[in-house]
Amino acid sequence: MLNTKQPVLRRFWYALMPVENLKDGPKPFTLLGEPIVLFLDAKGEPAALEDRCCHRTAKLSKGWCNNGNIVCGYHGWEYDRDGKLVMIPQFPFEQPVPEAKARSFRAKTRYGYVWVALDEPLSDIPDIPEDGLPGYRRINQFYEKWNTAALRLMENSFDNAHFAFVHKGTFGDINQPKPEKYEITENEDGFDAETIITVRNPLSASRITGTTEPTTKRHQRNKWFIPFCRRLDMEYPSGIRHIIFNCATPISDGQIQVIQLLFRNDTEADCSAQELIDWDAAIIAEDRDMLESTDPDAIVDMGRKIEMHMPSDRPGMIMRKRLLELLRAHDEEELPRERVA
C-alpha cells in the first residue's frame, strides 16, 4: 500500500517531533510525501505550512521566526501561522502587500509533541487517560526515522509470535515459541487485543517489572487506533503498569518517523527515566533491525509472502481488512485512480 497515494490517510493526525524542538526556530518535515515547515506562532503554538515560499519557491524552513511569523531566508517575505503573506520588506511602506498565501495545515500540541493533519481529520488524536493523571509520569522515550512502512510497524506491534525469536536477547524465551492466546475485539477506532504472557525477567529488568523472580507475567492490553497508532498497557503482578504509546508517522512509502511515549505509575526513585529509556531502547532496536530487513508492503501485497494464517497473524489481517475498507469507503470521494494492492 503506497501511503502517499491514499488521500484519505491525510485525514488523520500524526506526531512529528517534540514541540521543544521548535523553540530555536523553524524545522522541516516530510509528511506523506508533503514537505512542510513547523514553527511556533506568537502564542507559542505550533503552526505548519507548505515548505515553499510563493515568491521564488525557496524552502521556508531555511528562514527564521519574527514575532510568531515565519520569514523566508531568501528575500525576507514574511508569513503568519495561516500562511498569509504579511510583509514584503522591499515594498515601500504605503504599498499594500498582495493577496498571497503559503498552504497551511492543522497543527497542535499533545503529549509534548507537534501533531499535524494535512486535511480535515476524520478522528481526534488518540486519548491517553494516564497523561496528567496523578500517580503517573510521562517519559518521551524516543523519536527516530525507520526504513519501513507504518502498517508493518503496527502489525509487528500486535504479533506475539515474534517475541521468542526477535527478543531472545531481552525478554523473549526461545524455548517457548508458541504465543499465548489473544482476545481481540474490534471497535470503531480499530481493535483491542488482550492477553497474559510469561516473559523472562533478567536482573537488569527487575526495576522495570518490580520483581527479581527469573520470570514474570504481563497482562497486556494492546489497542490499535486506525491508521497508525497503538497503546500497549502492560501490567505486572507487582502492580506496576508500563504503558507504551507509539505513532508511526509516514514520511514516504518506505520510511516512517516513530515516536514512543511511556507512562508509569511509579517514581524516579523506583526506576529512573534513563533506566526505562535504555530498557525499551534495547527491545525497540531488536524490532527495528528485523522490520528494516522486511519488505515494507508485505502486509498488504499478498504476492510477496506466504499466508499460513497462524493465530498470531490475525491482528495484521484485521488491520489490512479495516484499512482497505477505509480506502474503499473514500474511493469515489477522494482516492486517485491508482488502486491499492
UniProtKB/TrEMBL annotation:
Matching SUPFAM superfamilies: Bet v1-like, ISP domain
A Pfam family annotated for this chain is: VanA_C
Q: Where is the Rieske domain?
A: 13-116
Report keywords, A-Z: 2Fe-2S, Dioxygenase, Iron, Iron-sulfur, Metal-binding, Oxidoreductase
Against InterPro entries, the record matches this protein to: Cholesterol_7-desaturase (IPR050584), Rieske_2Fe-2S (IPR017941), Rieske_2Fe-2S_sf (IPR036922), VanA_C_cat (IPR044043)
Q: Which GO terms describe its molecular function?
A: 2 iron, 2 sulfur cluster binding; dioxygenase activity; metal ion binding
Q: What is this protein called?
A: Phenylpropionate dioxygenase, large terminal subunit
To which species is this protein native? Bradyrhizobium erythrophlei
List the lineage, top down.
Answer: Bacteria, Pseudomonadati, Pseudomonadota, Alphaproteobacteria, Hyphomicrobiales
